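seq as requested:
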Amino acid sequence: MAKSPRTVLITGATDGVGKALAHQYRERGDRLILVGRRPPAELDPKLYTAQTYCRADLLWPDWTQIVKQFFYSHSIDRLDLLIHNAALGFYGPVASQPPASIRELMTVNLQAPIALTHTLLPWLLPAHGTVAFIGSVAARLPCPQFAVYGATKTALEGFTRSLRVELQGRVTVQMIHPGPIRTGMHARTNSPVPAARIERFPSAEHVARQIVRAIDRRNGLVTLGWGNQMIAFGGRHASWLVDRLAARWLP
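struct tokens:
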């Protein structure tokens, strides 16, 4: 007997890794719910349709209710997979980061995934679904010039650990940490990383494939790639050394 299509929701689904994930799950035949802030007119109408695209900016105060209403209006009664992919970044010392930027990072990177998980648990629990939080290897490292971003990813990992224990397998809870990715985030954060180095980072499509495999394996905590795994191990077990090395990278 053929398996029924799963229902998959992806935030930050209009660009980068989120868009690549949308293409991969569509190829699998899954039913997509794609959440993003861009107007539909700017998007591929073959992928982002009235049935698949829910426009909601994670900074809007009522955005979770917009998503919830999308479920009701499209008669969606279960959610098999929720992927929290949306994120913001900022490069620069904390002292020069505008207060509004700090609030936005805290909202999009930490508060939004917690709020949406809370909102959609009534759809996840009947499906014995999966919630996958896309973090960053930065959660395991000191992040000078990216301090608030790193803090949000570290806090998100703490939330997933507690939620995993709380739900006791009724919903699978995963934390997936990629390393640097070749996306537009570097330009948006004014990162000083040279373009030639960014070109050596893995593509969004490559990382999306790694994420899909990690979700299929259902492990609770995953760091993608052996190099990132070594860095994360050092950040946790040799913090004194990693902190000194990080200090050398300061401008």
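Residues 7-248 form a domain with the Rossmann fold fold (CATH 3.40.50.720).
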